[in-house]
Amino acid sequence: SMLANHMKKLFYQWNKDSVEDEKILKDLREYTHGVIDLDASTYHLRDVREPVVQQRKSKNNSKKAGK
Hints:
Blueprint (H helix, E strand, L loop, with lengths): L1 H14 L5 H11 L27 H7 L2
């Protein structure tokens, strides 16, 4: 499930278009030669609307960078 959600996130980041869960699950099934086979009728991926933003560095890290 983590891999499928990550694939959906990456698809969105590269294409800026939404993608159907079925497409991601079909591709995952194909890439793994059927080892990973999640049923699209019962398994739903997270809704990815925006890429994940990296967290800011803590104050301790920024002080070290200034030295």
